[in-house]
Task: structure prediction
Amino acid sequence: MADNNQNMRSHVICFNGGSSSIKVAVKEVTGTEVQSIADFNCQGLGTPGGYVDVVVSGKKDRWEMVMDDHSSALHAITKIISKDFPDLNIVAVGHRVVHGGTYFTDSALIDGVEGKVQAEILRLSALAPLHNPANHQIIIAALKDEVFGKVPNVAVFDTQFHANMPKYAQYYGVPKNWITDYSILRYGFHGTSYEYITGRFAELNNIAREATNVVIAHLGNGCSMAKVQNGIGSDTSMGVTPLAGLIMGTRSGDVDPGMLELMAEKLDVDVKEIVRILNRESGAWGLYSKGTKEIYQIREAAQNGDADAELVLDVIAYRVAKYFSEYLGTMEDPQGIVFTGGVGENEGYVRSKVLGFMKMFKWNIDTETILTRNEEVIIAESDLIPGLKAWVIPTDEERVFALEAMRFC
Result:
């Protein structure tokens, strides 16, 4: 790592860990401007089919690489960065952490491997069992690294975007002491994606952020939606944990809570096992039941006449359409809806289905732009609400991580 001074460029390493993946981005930060230097997307952790997708200077490559866990993936990328980018002036590391509970409502400087921040992240693992343990592991590996451990490491929480939701949106209809004593609230996730999209939507429409009213669908392996009123997260589809809301890659989304006891009896297992199934064996994976959770593969099957695949996409799209309609119906002066995330940005077939289910809004769909992949574009306009448009805006969560980390330099 080069010495830091005013004449040198500043670089931030951003870690975005999923349940079986880790994205590593190298960002150059100048004021509020953020430039991508390199991106590494490590997939298939803990499997023999692991690989790393690499993007450097716009050139893409894929490396086959077995990575036992998040820690080993991080160390592999560390070696690559040290070898291929020796002149980086690394000034900070930004970490995505999924659940911050009520304890973290803003980004936090990590105070060591055994500090308070790490302890709280680990304690909150019960609320995000697929993610917080992985986030914790990545942070430990970074703090122990000879380069990353010498600069500020900052935790940026998915939940912090939603921290100012009104109580009527946060509260469940449960005994009050569940809320006061156990913090059973709607927290919401994908906050850094919503942070970026809210700001970018305001820029694209030449409006102030604090005057921005938009509904955003972050659709990928994990899916959620957010209602943004006056630039602030005011409702969201996920809940205490990331299990609620939309149908996802392996997660069920909303279900009848009474089903947990019913299926525990039917399968002769405890409720904990039912929740595991809802997290890991449900969603697109469980519904389709043909060995894939990837929406592009299910879409290809549907286009080739697979009726089961078509139905799965209909079920998924209808749930998204319901949340869009629900949030738009409770907003004052809605200005737009946005599709983002891997599926939202790339799957026009799914977007068409979602808009098609929103009958009342009378979407006038642009048949060319609806199929656009990974570009900022307007795909439809509502004939019901003047000025209401449907957008595709690719997200950039790592940009948010980088700017948040720089706050602590």
Notes: The first strand starts at residue 10 and ends at 17.
